[in-house]
From TrEMBL:
GO terms for cellular component: cytoplasm. Residues 178-298 form the Ketopantoate reductase C-terminal domain. It comes from Lutibacter oceani. One of its GO terms (biological process) is pantothenate biosynthetic process. This is 2-dehydropantoate 2-reductase. InterPro entries: 6-PGluconate_DH-like_C_sf, 6PGD_dom2, ApbA, KPA_reductase, KPR-Related, KPR_N, NAD(P)-bd_dom_sf. Keywords: NADP, Oxidoreductase, Pantothenate biosynthesis. Pathway: Cofactor biosynthesis; (R)-pantothenate biosynthesis; (R)-pantoate from 3-methyl-2-oxobutanoate: step 2/2.
Length: 309
């Protein structure tokens, strides 16, 4: 399959490398020194599931250079999604499939507002990985997983083909029965741990070891669950309990990408995570005091990173 990985960071670099390893024709969209390193030395994947070097690697900064694309996996930051959607629109053919693997609850609707919704499937991923150096991806922990599905939850022919594509690449794959439920479950998980990690400047293990912080995380999750229910997304009763079991199973020194971005003074996904819950709470008349506290405490630094002060 002819695949474009739009964004060759921790997520795109990992899944793209595995898809190349399985024999697919993959082009990475990257930029700057990271792109230069990939073009010169290939894309090096260091992983607890086995290292792999994509060499030579197909990489460019312009999707217009890629023809006859079957699948685009969008793996940038959530706040870049609208801009990327505009850039990919001219490159789509009638059969191109587009899946966002980003954090956030509104990615599919953002895509469908810019490109024809016939191209769009819902999706998310689970992996802890990062850019270790230019051209080098380090998969640190978690079984890398892709969860996806048609927006109407039908088991279409193309969805079944994609399921086999990912499985053939050795990727844990879930063709969702209810993709919105899966998206909101991941959204709850990531929004519970990320911004509060940036606020406390603590690792996941350090946070859950302090009962008062763990309680705040639980309250964050409860507020997100309430918003999901009001939006018509029904999460199983044990969703929060299961997410905290996953949290407890992660390495003690684990951190989120949002947390690392904030601490590095970079623009983050704050608006797409806790900021979204605060906004939706206002729209729906649902109080979100803990999410609001976390969001507004970090907002000045977010504005500074985006030169909005």
């Amino acid at each position: 399959m002819n695949i474009v990985i739009y964004g060759a960071g921790g997520v795109g670099g990992y899944f793209g490398a595995r898809l190349v390893e399985a024999g697919n024709n993959v082009t990475f969209i990257a930029r700057g020194k990271h792109l230069e390193a990939i073009q010169k030395n290939g894309l090096q994947l260091k992983s607890i599931k086995g290292d792999y070097l994509v060499y030579p690697a197909k990489a460019t900064s312009e999707i217009s250079e890629v023809k006859n694309i079957d699948l685009i996996l969008i793996c940038v930051k959530t706040w870049q999604l609208a801009e990327v959607s505009e850039k990919i629109e001219p490159a789509l053919n009638s059969n191109t499939m587009v899946i966002s693997l980003l954090n956030g609850a509104e990615n599919a609707s953002i895509l469908c507002g810019i490109i024809d919704k016939k191209h769009v499937l819902g999706g998310l991923c689970k992996v802890i990985s990062k850019i270790e150096d230019y051209g080098v991806i380090n998969h640190i922990s978690y079984e890398p997983t892709i969860v996806f599905g048609e927006l109407d939850n039908k088991k279409s022919k193309r969805a079944l083909i994609l399921e086999q594509l990912f499985l053939n690449a050795g990727i844990k794959t879930i063709l969702a029965e209810d993709i919105q439920k899966e998206i909101w479950t991941k959204f709850l998980f990531i929004s519970t741990i990320s911004a509060i990690g940036a606020l406390t400047r603590a690792t996941l293990g350090e946070m859950i070891a302090i009962p008062q912080i763990k309680k705040m995380m639980f309250q964050t999750a409860k507020e997100i669950e309430s918003i999901a229910l009001a939006k018509g997304v029904y999460l199983p009763e044990d969703t929060i309990e299961k997410q905290f079991q996953i949290i407890a199973s992660q390495p003690f020194d684990a951190t989120s990408s949002l947390q690392r971005d904030v601490l590095d003074g970079k623009p983050s996904e704050l608006e797409a995570q806790n900021g979204t819950i605060v906004r939706m709470g206002k729209e729906l008349g649902i109080p979100t005091p803990v999410n609001s506290f976390i969001y507004y405490c970090l907002l000045p630094q977010e504005k500074k990173a985006r030169n909005l002060n």
